[in-house]
Predict the structure.
Amino acid sequence: GKQFVPIVELAALLYLGEYIHARHTWRRWSQDNNNPPPLLKDWWNVGKAMMMTGSDDTATSSLWSALQHIQTNHPAPLNGYASEVATAYRRRLLLKFPPTQPVWRLLNFTSIEELQEFCRQQGLVLSSLGGGGGGVAKVSPALSSSSSVGLLTSGMVDRKASLTQVVTFLESTTATVPGGSATTATRAA
């Protein structure tokens, strides 16, 4: 129902990698309701950890713990969003890391083989540079031509535009914040 609007909005922004917008959304919804609902707090724990990943091992482990907590304890379909957010996050980071970064542990893979399977499922090419120590080589999208790049970019823009329309619609109605009272969800962006 409408009580899940802020939670879905926050999860969608994390899925897209829009961490600054996610932080803004958290602040809006948590300030309107002095005692933010636990489900929203759980998603913000994921967002905080995503913003801090790479700064220390604690942030990395808290990210995966927070996602596991959501998958285990949140109602459907919210619990399913956690795996979608994790997949998008892994994919995004795999494409951004330098070729020698040992990302498989950072991204909570238990083995190089699990990372290779993930890349295969996501249509990513994992090329090996050799060497030991768990270093991972370059990861790149499996695209066959330059026109495919345009299609990929255009598809991502279309998804973002569609998501923006959905969130705008959801926020333009009167919503009940979980654990709070009915509020008008239309806000200044």
